[in-house]
Amino acid sequence: MFKNLRLFKLDDLAAVDLDRCEAQLAARRFRPCGPLETATMGWVPPLGEETSVLAHLAGDCVLVCARRQERILPAAVVAETLDEKIAEIEDREARTVGRKERRQLRDEVLLDLLPRAFTRSRRSSAYLDRQTGWLLVDAASATAAEDLVDLLRETLGSLPVHPPRPSQPPELLLTQWVSRGELPSGLTLGDECELRDARDDKVVARCRGHDLTGEEVATHLRSGKQVTKLALDWRESLAFVLQEDLSLKRLRFADELIEEGIDQGLEEEATRLDAEFILMTGELRPLLACLEAVFLPTDAPAAMAMATATAAAAAASAAESDPPF
């Protein structure tokens, strides 16, 4: 299950050739850092190292996973080693080390320390929904998401995607939701928000564990603050925090949803991860349709009708069918 969502919209679904995708990813498979490399990044199997597939297909969704490894070489360690080396030279030769020589010595220190530095790795997953054109990255920061998108673009040769382009500032709609208590169908207010002064973005108020329709939050709104982060619940099955850049943080799927949708007796990790992925994408698709209709409307009435129909169809399907696992 993803913990965060960074959204990118694919301009042309035909630009991604799924028949070649696996081979293209294999050409950029992850490899560990070499002795003198500061970082490497490549693709690993998204369902675990015991599997080999790099582009996992489930329905209309393609799941990939990138691994980045970097060497940990703190600047303080480099500076201390460099100072010791310079002091030794100045003491032995009774002279001052100049700026140019200092830069050369620093390069020598880096070459000496890098092979002995520890490494650390982090993994980032993403999936492309071929039905909707969304590329969704599980990354807490925009930088980490862009790193994965850049690697995917280099791997595929072309990837015409862009972040969401709202028709109006999202904070205006978030503020209306809190002030009026009127939200799109399926969404309800959580108990957390962040408000920022429209005239001075350094003035920020954070509310957690609050009734967002109460007087305290209303006072902030009357003073001119706008909601820039808002905790929301989707159909009592998914809680998250929606940010002003339309990224979703701290996704939490309801335990009941997971227990009903996934066979808890699954022993193989890859099978369990595949089941979670199918469940997650099925839940996120109508949510994203709702958010797209609200924040990115091309034809707002038609888009909202489509979002409502998608959500209703998903709910009806879930009610009429047995859990798939």
Secondary-structure element string: EHEEEHHEEHEHEEHEEEHHH
Termini Cα gap: 16 Å
Number of strands: 12
Tell me the major beta sheet.
Answer: 7 strands, antiparallel
> Which term fits the overall shape?
globular
Report helical residue fraction.
Answer: 40-55%
Strand content: 25-35%
Task: Give the helix/strand class.
Answer: alpha+beta
Please tally the helical runs, counting DSSP H or I stretches of 4 or more residues.
9
Plain-language structure description:
Helix content is 41%, strand content 25%. It contains 9 helices and 12 strands. The strands form 2 sheets. Strands 1, 2, 3, 4, 5, 6 and 7 form a 7-stranded antiparallel β-sheet that branches. Strand 5 (118-129) and strand 6 (134-137) form a beta hairpin. Helix 8 packs antiparallel against helix 9. 28% of the residues are buried. The model is unreliable at 299-325 (pLDDT under 50).
What tags apply to this protein structure?
325 residues; 12 strands; 9 helices; disordered C terminus
Q: How are the SSEs ordered, and which strands pair?
A:
Blueprint: E1 6-10, H1 18-27, E2 39-44, E3 56-58, E4 61-72, H2 75-93, H3 99-113, E5 118-129, E6 134-137, H4 142-156, E7 161-162, H5 170-180, E8 187-197, E9 204-208, H6 215-222, E10 225-234, E11 238-243, E12 248-253, H7 255-261, H8 269-295, H9 300-320
Antiparallel strand pairs: 1-6, 1-7, 2-4, 3-4, 4-5, 5-6, 8-9, 8-10, 10-11, 11-12
